[in-house]
What we know:
Number of strands: 8
Structural class: alpha+beta
Protein name: Lipoprotein
Number of helices: 2
Strand content: 35-45%
Largest sheet: 6 strands, antiparallel
Mean pLDDT: 87
Strand order of the largest sheet: 5-4-1-6-7-8
Radius of gyration: 23 Å
Amino acid sequence: MNRIPSILLILIFLFGCKSTSLKKNSEFIMNDATVNLFAFIGEKISVEEFDPNENNTQIVIDSISRDTMRKVTYVMDNGFKSKYRVLKNVFNELKTDTIEFVAFDHYGRPRFEKYENVILYISLNEEGQYYQQKYQFDPVKKSWNGTWKGLDGKSIERLFYDRKKEVLIDRGLFDDK
Length: 177
């Protein structure tokens, strides 16, 4: 009879440790400063369209003839200035609570703006401006125990590794090791 409280105490301790390890596993974050990629769970603040072809004319000098020429470039995508609250870093650390980046979409508005929370994959260009890796995002939600999961129930770690394997390696962001 005296063993029952001891056994119950041991079971509570074991189950408590198990739930702690589940939460710990969902807190996935990875860092590699050699990779120009930041992945984070974000909450939308704003997504505003802009004209990516505004100010698209440059005056250049031909290196052979030394003639002055007008060079006009056209972007065939819609441009969007996006602002998101950084809820959790997933790959490389953004040292800010909000981030602004540009996104381009050939089909209209970016699909990531339809979701309350998403993992966004962004990089930094030579001018110091963040831009979204085109079409790359994963919708997520917070589960009952406070961990983040994909809408299909996949862990944040699994979503990141699937995206890395399916797209980011092909784009040259990672070695294919």
